[in-house]
Amino acid sequence: MAGRCGLADSPSLRTFPPRLGLVLSCPPATNIRYRPGQSGGMSPLPLMAAPTWRIQSRLALWDSGRDRVHGAEFDVLDSQPFTASDQIHVMGLDLAGRYMAHTLAGCRTIPPVRYVIHNHFMGKRWHENNKQLTLYRGHHMIIRRRIKADFTSEHDKRLEWGPIHNLVVTLPACQVLNAIGAIRHRLDHRSTICLVNDGLGVAEALIEAYFPDQSKRPIFLLGHLTTSLDYTGDIFSVSEVRPGRLYLTLLPSQGLGGNHEVRIKRHPPLERTVRGSHFIRLLTAIPGLNATGHPIADFMRYKLPTVAFRAIADPLAALFECRYDGLRDNPHARQLMDRLLAELSGVLSRLPECRDSPKFRQVALFTELRDKVFRKLLQQRTADSKMRSQVGRGWDTDVDFLSGYFVRRGRQIHYPVEVLDSVMWAIKAKRLVELKKLIRKARLEQLKSQSGAAGGSGGSGSQEQAQRQ
């Protein structure tokens, strides 16, 4: 892969600024440019010697010294050499998924991005939309066609699909587990999965459900996208309201359990660091994505305001059935938010992977956290909470990966989280109540329609029978 990417179908060319930090050379196997072949496929065009990359990250910290970690020491059982791949798959029809697939499709020095679609209806819509994604940026409309739909499901395990090496997942946290289950047969130790959503603890849930074997476990990256996006009315287009960044980190200890401390010379092990850092390096070299790699403590510092707000404000808005301004104007709701913030701050300040970072400890202070959450609440004004809408429809919510994440971490470190735990279970109970209401309503409407049909054809006797029914 070259050190820059062409944007032939973009209204303007953007120069990718040099990144400061770790200097990583481009592997010889990736120094190719893809161009359409004679038969319409993609054929590699060799390039001259590619320049070195200067990537703004601190990946070298994960390879240096002896790190104290929580979890059991493990060895990678796969003895095969690591072969880098620049093929990227994107899973997610949400705004972030469309945006990332569109941005990756503009880079011509990597293979066309593959959009994972395992819904026949969406596959039909994709073909009707001319197999393209559209980005609206100001007064510009940018269309990308270097995208290939990857139709797959758990019932379609054809060998020709092959493994997925680099996967970006932007689905809501509550949907990731089922979605990954559909392509589980294509993921193994050769894969790297980048999770870009507002939740925490998703990777640990995937490891527990699908990848208990350490020798066959993918590498997990965590991502946080700050680009402000909006809907356009078309399912395969997205509007960029305000540019942002993509923060990336390598999941520490890869979600391994264990309550005892051990020392290892390299954490993560060297081979797994190479696998994870290749995907980070690949994403940081994409123009327009503005991706940077960070240690876990710095990453959490950037992501914390969003996660804290969603873990506290969203459940309360759903429980009280109000918009965000309703929480701000309710003194009792603000008092409850303070109690939730106190527990959340106590858990964050004791996280073993972040407690050695002075900057993170400063952000995790109750006063700092409260200021950020209430400032964000003020910015939302009269906006409505997604969780409130989901609960009202009886849908699954992200509460297990928002409030639930801090409940689990609090119990691991023996810190009291009773208020967070109560709010989490209250959301689950309210969702179940709303779901049963909708089911009863649907049944009543069905009986009414049956009664009306019977009354029109069978007279009064049929009406009496329908009423008894």
TrEMBL record:
Q: Which organism is it from?
A: Parathielavia hyrcaniae
Q: Which family does it belong to?
A: Belongs to the ketopantoate reductase family.
Q: Which residues form the Ketopantoate reductase N-terminal domain?
A: 88-215
Q: Does the keyword Oxidoreductase apply?
A: yes
Which keywords accompany this UniProt record?
NADP, Oxidoreductase
Cited InterPro entries: 6-PGluconate_DH-like_C_sf (IPR008927), 6PGD_dom2 (IPR013328), Ketopantoate_reductase (IPR050838), KPA_reductase (IPR013752), KPR_N (IPR013332)
Pfam families reported in the protein's UniProt record: ApbA, ApbA_C
Q: Which GO terms describe its molecular function?
A: 2-dehydropantoate 2-reductase activity; NADP binding
Q: Which GO terms describe its cellular component?
A: mitochondrion
Q: What is this protein called?
A: 2-dehydropantoate 2-reductase
Region (Disordered) location: 448-469
Using the record, list the residue span of the signal peptide; answer none if the entry has no such feature. none
| Taxonomic superkingdom | Eukaryota
